[in-house]
């Protein structure tokens, strides 16, 4: 049983798109899926995954030049789908590396910055992170307290960033700070005096992911560390829109994996002398889940085609993230019910996906913020305050 096949959605993909999807899926099946439950339980992700994903070609795959593949938006989305079908933490690593760290340099950096960092980041030889969220400012990044002040020909940064994926791994951090001229972006290399990263422990979600707090205490940087094209908060938000696009597809992957896991189980689990897949209530659950997954995938593909045409608007990305993550959480919870008590174990993926998706629902714009973004687009009246 496969809801995408039910609607014949794969037939709408091009040969290259299908090839990229199958290549990523095969690699993950062989090298990541067998270990991800163990990583989740241990609350760790092996650092060696970075160069492996670099060799696979998924790091910054949607960017052009500098060692990046220049793949289509649809191909990138399909890679995110397969990555999150294994675990949201794995997709988050790729998303933060490519759509936040690398994209911020690719879109807003100088040629020297691009040449210095993008080839290494694309190969997974270096890891990047994106420092925007602060302890007191998540949904309202404009209120950030991190400051960058000019001192002579240098900049001095002070502040704290939190919930930063890849933070303690990062060889370079894109850090956003308020200045006298407005919000600006800076590249802070690992080892810069005053710059430290501390991992956040005790997570109940996104456990197969590195999440950190960044501290900047009188971090002195040269002018060459500033991203010259990053002028204003909109520059940071443009990077978030790139990452949110990947989430639109990634959520479909998590939901699809939950559906398949529950379907495999229901076909072999016998109660009252028959497989539970043969009971009406179970079939109704599969029907509802298949519609949710199929509709989410069709929406993701529509947004990808808009992106490829240069016509995708931020409110449309908000619609995709809000709809698809909410749908994926509902599918994960329903799939868990089909698994019964076995569904709470790490032997089956739906509850792990459900836990992860609670984070996905919140990060890179909470469900409430994306709902307000849609309300703003529909009425013309901002209601954020």
Description:
There is one protein chain. The chain is α+β, with helices and mostly antiparallel strands. The protein folds into 3 domains: 3-123, Acyl-CoA dehydrogenase/oxidase, N-terminal domain (Butyryl-Coa Dehydrogenase, subunit A, domain 1, Orthogonal Bundle), CATH 1.10.540; 128-231, Butyryl-CoA Dehydrogenase, subunit A, domain 2 (Beta Barrel), CATH 2.40.110.10; 234-379, Up-down Bundle (Butyryl-CoA Dehydrogenase, subunit A, domain 3), CATH 1.20.140.10. 53% of the residues lie in helices and 18% in strands. It has 12 helices and 12 strands. The chain has helices spanning 3-6, 15-31, 33-42, 49-56, 73-86, 88-108, 111-123, 233-268, 280-308, 314-339, 350-362, 367-379; strands at residues 64-65, 68-69, 128-131, 147-151, 154-165, 172-179, 182-189, 195-199, 211-222, 226-231, 270-271, 274-275. It has a 4-stranded mixed beta sheet with strand order 3-6-7-10. The chain has a 4-stranded antiparallel beta sheet with strand order 4-5-9-8, covered by helices on one side. Strand 1 (64-65) and strand 2 (68-69) form a beta hairpin. The longest helix has 36 residues, at 233-268. The radius of gyration is 21 Å and the shape is globular. The model has no long low-confidence stretch (mean pLDDT 97).
């Amino acid at each position: 049983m496969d809801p995408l096949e039910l609607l014949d959605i794969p037939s709408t993909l091009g040969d290259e798109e299908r090839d990229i999807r199958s290549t990523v899926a095969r690699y993950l099946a062989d090298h990541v899926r067998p270990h991800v439950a163990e990583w989740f339980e241990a609350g760790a992700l092996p650092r060696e995954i970075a160069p492996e994903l670099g060799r696979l070609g998924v790091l910054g795959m949607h960017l052009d030049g500098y060692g990046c593949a220049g793949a289509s938006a649809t191909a990138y989305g399909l890679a995110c789908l397969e990555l999150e079908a294994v675990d949201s933490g794995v997709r988050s690593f790729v998303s933060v590396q490519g759509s936040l760290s690398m994209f911020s340099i690719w879109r807003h950096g100088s040629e020297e910055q691009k040449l210095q960092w993008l080839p290494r980041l694309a190969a997974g030889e270096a890891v990047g992170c994106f420092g925007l969220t602060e302890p007191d400012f998540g949904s309202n990044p404009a209120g950030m307290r991190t400051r960058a002040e000019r001192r002579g020909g240098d900049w001095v940064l002070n502040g704290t960033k939190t919930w930063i994926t890849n933070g303690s791994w990062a060889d370079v951090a894109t850090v956003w700070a308020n200045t006298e001229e407005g919000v600006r972006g800076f590249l802070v290399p690992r080892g810069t005096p005053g710059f430290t990263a501390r991992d956040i422990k005790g997570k109940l979600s996104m456990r197969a992911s590195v999440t950190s707090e960044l501290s900047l205490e009188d971090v002195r940087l040269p002018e060459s560390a500033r991203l010259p094209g990053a002028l204003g908060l909109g520059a940071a938000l443009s990077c978030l829109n790139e990452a949110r696009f990947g989430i639109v597809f990634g959520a479909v992957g998590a939901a699809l994996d939950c559906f398949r896991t529950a379907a495999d189980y229901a076909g072999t689990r016998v109660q009252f002398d028959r497989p539970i897949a043969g009971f009406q209530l179970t079939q109704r659950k599969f029907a509802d889940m298949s519609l949710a997954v199929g509709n989410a995938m069709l929406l993701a593909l529509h947004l990808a085609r808009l992106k490829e045409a240069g016509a995708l608007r931020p409110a449309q990305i908000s619609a995709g993230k809000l709809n698809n993550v909410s749908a994926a959480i509902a599918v994960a919870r329903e799939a868990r019910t089909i698994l019964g008590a076995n569904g709470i174990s790490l032997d089956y993926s739906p509850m792990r996906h459900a836990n992860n998706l609670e984070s996905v629902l919140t990060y890179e714009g909470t469900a409430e913020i994306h709902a307000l973004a849609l309300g703003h687009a529909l009425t013309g009246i901002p209601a954020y305050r």
